[in-house]
Amino acid sequence: MASKPTYDCAYSILKHMDLKKRLGLKAKSPVFRQLESTIPLEIDVLDFSGTQVLVNEVEYSIGIVQKWPTDKIPDWAKLDRLAGPIQEDIDEYGRPLMPGDINLTGRGRIPVESPSEQIKDLPVNLDNLNAEIEEIKKSIQENKKKLADLRLRWGTYPFTLKELNEFKNRQGHVYFHKAEEPFLRDERRRGIYREYPRHRFQERQNYQSRRFSRGREEGSSCEALEKIENKQDAEICQKELDLEIFESQKEIHRLIHIRDNTLPEFRVQLVIKEPSGEEQIKYAKYNRKLLEYHKGLIDFMFGNRRSSIKVKKLIVSHENFIRAPIGLKLKVQGLKIISRKDHFPRLEGVLNRLRPIFDESSIPLKSIEFESRRIEDFHHEMIMSAKEVIIRWKHNPLTMINVDLPHQRVIAEVYYLEPEHYIDFVQRLKDAGRPIGTHHSFIINDGPPNEIFKAFQNNVIREGEKFVVIPFNEKANLKVSLDSRNQISFEVIGLFG
Hints:
The protein is of the alpha/beta class. The protein folds into two domains: about 70-265, no CATH class; about 300-495, no CATH class. It is built from 15 helices and 15 strands. It has helices at about 5-15, 20-30, 30-35, 75-80, 125-155, 160-170, 175-190, 200-215, 230-260, 290-300, 345-355, 380-385, 395-400, 420-430, 450-455; strands at about 40-45, 55, 60-65, 265-275, 280-285, 310-315, 330-340, 365-370, 390-395, 410-415, 440-445, 460-465, 465-470, 475-485, 485-495. Helix 5 (about 125-155) packs antiparallel against helix 9 (about 230-260). The longest helix has 30 residues, at about 230-260. The chain is globular and about 90 Å long. The termini are far apart.
């Protein structure tokens, strides 16, 4: 009898804890592990769309990092860490290979140009290798001298690692000769795909154009410092030199390992990041495939549960795997499917693959959000039965406005169309006898909807600064509203609403 109050107390405490704290206790105690799996789990937002998992804005990410003594991490390694851990399996030298793969290229990079590379089972030519290391050291000294000259002439200051990382991301990975491809590989293997602001890209293009027009060899880095014309160019050049120095130092580090027949040590890193930015970091030995660690994390969080998992909003991407535990069932209210590239697969296949992890009580969904350019996508039962659909339409806007959707609430992101098309849209709502509560909103991507709003200023029953109420039928009126600077909505309301 003495154990029952203790059990009830623990159950009550765990039930009201957030998932992060529950998992912390679960990891520490087999007793809590068994108890925690019996307690229903309620999640506001569960996001599987990236390489990380987000639960109520707490991010759980797994990747591979090189192990360093805490006080001896070089700046180039710190810069690498700012971009996040490696998101693919690597070989013993940090290249993207999976454990068990056979490396036929030797211990260094693919031996195309450098004679110092070791081919498998062949000895390293130490003289050539040391000569290459000295050559890189010499280039580092030359670039450091250029940096000093730049700062003296233009009064620039040393940039922080955060500033250099932002510059690297902003420029779309366009760097300089030998350093360019390694950076590209680093970002690709981390699964990072960014969109870059057009004006930033144009700044870079203008700068490169000025450099090349002054007779510099394409791909070279700041050779003629005296021809730099302004401080902005000087700062860009300085950042490029900083990054080139870091890449050279990284290359020396790799070559020294080859020369000395030593191996860097890599670990699996789990980062738990709060919305405030506070991080909790844990490490494990890297002796299995990375996907097994991903799978293990998801299994630990959501697997072997004897109670329901309720999710208000599930976010997925058609470009990703969900390492779902066997038998996972989610009671989902809202679903959002996102795309990070200009590629829109048929939603039928995506939804059919998701359906097995949805508890039967999830259908009909309260809300579903997706991108599409095909009307056929709307015919799937998970879309047609949803109470609300949010569509980012990527095709002819007239097609989207003309489609007859039975949903009570529709939000569509479209390109601009002339007001007469929206007048026709309202007439179709009338002809269909849409009931009170029907609500259609259009987010206009490329222009404010003011002209559309002005087209509904006749026969006004009631109006405000950003809405008008006009006749709809014998039993209802229509409220037309400017919800924001680029959104207009049409809502069927009661006669006295």
